[in-house]
């Protein structure tokens, strides 16, 4: 090995070590340190596309979006085929609600690396954000062919089928996603919603929501879904002239929960217009008292 080849190998090793250190800092959310180290490395390699991409990731982590976009364009100027730069631009434009640009960048990344699952999922999310539901579903089907056990892909496919009112298909995908994360409250809530959309599965959905509320009693989304679904369930037969579902048809614990919630809501509606003004009067009196002490 010549001396030049040895120096070249050492330089490449040092560069990989620096890149690994920056990646590690980003992974533990030490974005400022990652930015500092990236800039130090770029001082000697100002057109290194990967170092520029790492700098952009550090800026993205700090919500420095204008700087991040400028760095990503510098990255693409150094290497127009750097697909991950287009991926990060797509995420950036999503945050900034620049949805046409989001799709364009996601499409560019996916066209450059059509077998990269991350790019395919990003493209499906971009289509879904813009309301292009059928296109999002077609893209996700490609992803599931590549990664049939992808939790994220099944969850997103469930969201798409739910939006298309394909509730049975949505249920299947949510159940598949839950095999990888069985205690995920968001997924369980989505599963309950898909069950409630299907004839004959309303009570199963109510039972699911009730169990979730017991596990997470401070979650307002779960409580609201449960209460509104019980109200809807009670009146669902009346349109067909078959009377109404009776609260007494539900398990006793669920009946008690609903009745208790309605009593508390009734109390707040009846007395809220008095209670809240009193609270504000007390708060303002307390603030005025503190100011009077400060002036003395």
Automatic annotation (TrEMBL):
Organism: Aliikangiella marina
Keywords per UniProt: Membrane, Repeat, TPR repeat, Transmembrane, Transmembrane helix
SMART domains: TPR
Segments traversing the membrane: 273-294
Keyword Membrane among UniProt keywords: yes
InterPro entries associated with the record: TPR-like_helical_dom_sf, TPR_rpt, Ycf3/AcsC/BcsC/TPR_MFPF
TPR repeat extents: 117-150, 151-184
Protein name (database record): Tetratricopeptide repeat protein
SUPFAM superfamilies from the UniProt entry: TPR-like
Upper taxonomic lineage: Bacteria, Pseudomonadati, Pseudomonadota, Gammaproteobacteria, Oceanospirillales
One of the Pfam families matching this protein, by short name: TPR_19
Entry annotated with the keyword Magnesium: no
């Amino acid at each position: 090995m010549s001396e030049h080849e040895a120096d070249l190998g050492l330089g490449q090793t040092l560069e990989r070590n620096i890149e690994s250190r920056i990646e590690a800092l980003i992974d533990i959310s030490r974005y400022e340190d990652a930015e500092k180290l990236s800039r130090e490395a770029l001082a000697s390699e100002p057109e290194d596309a990967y170092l520029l991409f790492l700098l952009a990731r550090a800026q993205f982590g700090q919500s420095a979006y204008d700087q991040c976009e400028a760095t990503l364009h510098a990255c693409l100027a150094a290497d127009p085929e750097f697909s991950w730069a287009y991926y990060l631009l797509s995420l950036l434009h999503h945050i900034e609600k620049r949805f046409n640009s989001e799709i364009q960048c996601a499409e560019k990344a996916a066209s450059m690396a059509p077998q990269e699952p991350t790019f395919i999922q990003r493209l499906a999310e971009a289509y879904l954000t813009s309301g292009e539901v059928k296109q999002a579903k077609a893209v996700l089907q490609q992803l599931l062919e590549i990664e049939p056990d992808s939790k994220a892909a099944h969850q997103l496919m469930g969201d798409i089928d739910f939006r298309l009112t394909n509730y049975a298909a949505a249920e299947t995908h949510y159940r598949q996603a839950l095999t990888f994360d069985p205690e995920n409250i968001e997924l369980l809530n989505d599963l309950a919603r898909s069950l409630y959309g299907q004839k004959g599965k309303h009570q199963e959905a109510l039972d699911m929501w009730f169990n979730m509320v017991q596990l997470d009693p401070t979650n307002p989304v779960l409580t609201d879904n449960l209460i509104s679904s019980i109200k809807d369930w009670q009146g669902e037969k009346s349109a067909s002239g078959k009377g109404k579902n009776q609260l007494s048809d539900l398990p006793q614990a669920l009946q008690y929960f609903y009745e208790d919630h309605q009593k508390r809501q009734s109390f707040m509606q009846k007395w809220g217009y008095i209670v809240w003004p009193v609270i504000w009067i007390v708060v303002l009196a307390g603030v005025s008292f503190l100011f009077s002490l400060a002036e003395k």
